[in-house]
Amino acid sequence: MAIWNLGSINADFVYSVPHLPVPGETLASTKRQVFLGGKGTNMSVAAARAGGRIHHIGAVGQDGRWAVDRLMEYGVDTRWIAEIDVETAQAIIMVDGAGENSIVLHPGANNCIPDNSLQSALTEAKTGDWFVCQNETNQQGEGAQMAKAMGLKVAYAAAPFDARAVEFLLPHLDFLILNAVEMTQLTEASGKSPTDLSVEIVIVTDGAAGSDLFLGSDHVHVPAIAVDAVDTTGAGDTFTGYVLAGLDRGMPIQQAMDQATRAAAIMVTRHGTADVIPDLADVQAFRP
Question: For residue 116, is it left (φ>0), alpha (ψ between -120 and 50) or beta?
Fold first, then answer.
């Protein structure tokens, strides 16, 4: 089977800072690095490194050709990434000494993915494939509806969080993943708990506290693995990509989550985003 990812593509500018700035504060960074990133890109790379067959649907400007080349190097099918007359998206990421981060996004080409990129890509999708999207691109609603009508399983990573976007997509979803803060916001907006959402698989992540799986009325907690974190950027995306690749390869959901938990644990010990996502060999060799 395969995973079709309507996903963002960013140039990530990562600044190491002594602490995250407060309003009105000016800080000097101690280091600056540039990585391939974006929630969609991170998920595509993670899924590919987990052994999945991943097709990325997105857009970059002329300044983003390097990003497409790198995605291809990482095993992602890039045929449906359009080059358009809009600059490639950027993320400004500040990371403190404890590995916590603060992020500003400039959406650029991510919000201008052409209609024909999505439509052309999904003509090659097959019943039973996965379709996944996030809140960093346009066409999420159209993509989810089209994929569902074609018999694909639809997954949604509800970040950056927008309650209206989530509620619109809920009727089309087979899989919803969001963090604990986002789940609280969704409950406040909709009055629904994870078990009330009528979505087959709901996963709520909570950083070092682990993740919670809701399958109908069943609830399973998957603990995190204790490591010395240096950068939490991209860990959630790595977890999501690994879970989806596991499901696409026929793994039981808890086994897929266990593997994804190991991948995320490795990820937070590394500085960077898509370029440093662990591969399956790293995960299988990991001894916490």
Answer: alpha
- Residue 228 inside a domain? The answer is yes
CATH number at residue 187: 3.40.1190.20
Asked whether residue 22 is domain-assigned, the answer is no
pTM, rounded to two decimals: 0.93
Q: Give pLDDT tens digits along the chain (288 positions).
A: 899 999 999 998 989 999 999 999 999 999 999 989 999 999 999 999 999 999 999 999 999 999 999 999 999 999 999 999 999 999 898 989 887 888 888 999 999 999 999 999 999 999 999 999 999 999 999 999 999 999 999 999 999 999 999 999 999 999 999 999 999 999 999 999 999 999 999 999 999 999 999 998 899 999 999 999 988 889 999 999 999 999 999 999 999 999 999 999 999 999 888 999 999 999 999 988
Residue 88 lies in a domain: no
Whether residue 93 is contained in a domain is answered as: no
Instruction: Give 241's contacts (C-beta < 8 A, 6+ positions apart).
Output: 42, 43, 44, 45, 46, 47, 48, 49, 50, 52, 260, 277
Query: How many domains is the chain built from?
Result: 1
Containing domain of residue 131, as a range? Answer: 3-7+42-81+111-285
Show the tokens assigned to 63.
Answer: 């300044």
